[in-house]
Design a protein that fits this description.
The complex is a heterodimer.
Chain A: H1 2-12, E1 16-21, H2 30-40, E2 46-50, E3 58-59, H3 63-69, E4 76-82, H4 86-98
Antiparallel strand pairs in A: 1-4, 2-3, 2-4
Helix pairs in contact in A: 2-4
Chain B: E1 10-15, H1 18-32, E2 38-42, H2 53-62, E3 69-73, H3 76-88, H4 91-94, E4 97-100, H5 104-116, H6 121-129
Parallel strand pairs in B: 1-2, 1-3, 3-4
Helix pairs in contact in B: 1-5, 2-3, 5-6
Keywords (chain B): Kinase, Transferase
Pfam families (chain B): EIIA-man
Subunit structure (chain B): Homodimer. The dihydroxyacetone kinase complex is composed of a homodimer of DhaM, a homodimer of DhaK and the subunit DhaL.
């Protein structure tokens, strides 16, 4: 359901990209992955993350896929967001990373 | 443990060990939060290792949601007793309870994460089962 909407959104809106460095001590482990997924799910936009700017891209709304990225502290997390609420989504995702997922 | 957002899919954790079931439920609460109806059960009726149908039925009732309930189980009897419990539910509820083929701890956290975003039961089950995919 989410995926279908997100794919449609991605087709009509040019993707926004930005990156942020993971500052929290554990990196993108279980708990931060859950928070990132929960936040991503609040938006209509298709939201993807990657460890390098040209991908491979991972669906930020999938908790299992996000945990498999296993991004360590100090890694740069790239975001690619496309959809009607992409600006708000990107700002919120970057804020979460800058905040250290509320852990730092 | 009762629901704060009854629209989200409920999660039931069934382990042979009540300590594992309770611990997995603690992880769900800490990592995912309170937005998901959650219940756990473990141990046989004498307090030993095992599972029992009555306990599972009670847990389903506690975690009940109109959106349905996803059950995470550990080994053998937990699965067969859960299936038996589902069969004993009133007919209108039976189709809204699914046993997931996923590791009990990881599956519970992932299923609850999916549920907390408002995903339907089928998506919650699919996400938990991605661990074996």
């Amino acid at each position: 359901m989410h995926d279908a909407n997100a794919n449609r959104a991605a087709q009509t809106f040019a993707p926004l990209t930005a990156s942020a460095v993971l500052v929290n001590p554990v990196g993108l482990h279980a708990r931060p992955s859950v928070k990132l997924t929960q936040l991503a799910k609040r938006f209509t936009a298709k939201i993807e993350i990657a460890l390098v700017a040209d991908g491979p891209w991972t669906d930020a709304k999938s908790p299992v896929k996000v945990m498999r990225v296993k991004a360590p502290q100090g890694a740069t997390l790239h975001f690619r967001v496309a959809g009607p609420d992409s600006e708000a989504a990107l700002a919120a995702m970057l804020a979460l990373v800058h905040d250290g997922f509320g852990e730092a | 443990m009762s629901s704060l957002r009854p629209g989200n899919v409920g999660i039931v954790i069934v382990s042979h060990s009540p300590k594992i079931a309770e611990g997995a439920a603690d992880m769900v609460r800490q990592m995912v939060g309170d937005a998901v109806p959650l219940a756990w059960t473990g141990g046989d009726v004498d307090g030993g290792l095992g599972t029992n149908v009555a306990g599972i039925l009670e847990a389903i009732e506690t975690a009940w949601s109109p959106a349905g309930v996803a059950i995470l189980v550990d080994l053998g009897g937990a699965e067969t007793n859960s299936e038996m419990a589902v069969e004993m539910l009133p007919e209108d509820r039976r189709a809204r309870v699914l046993v997931c083929n996923a590791p009990v701890v990881e599956g519970a956290v992932i299923a609850a994460t999916e549920s907390s975003g408002g995903s339907p039961l089928a998506a919650v089950k699919r996400s938990a089962e991605e661990f074996y995919a």
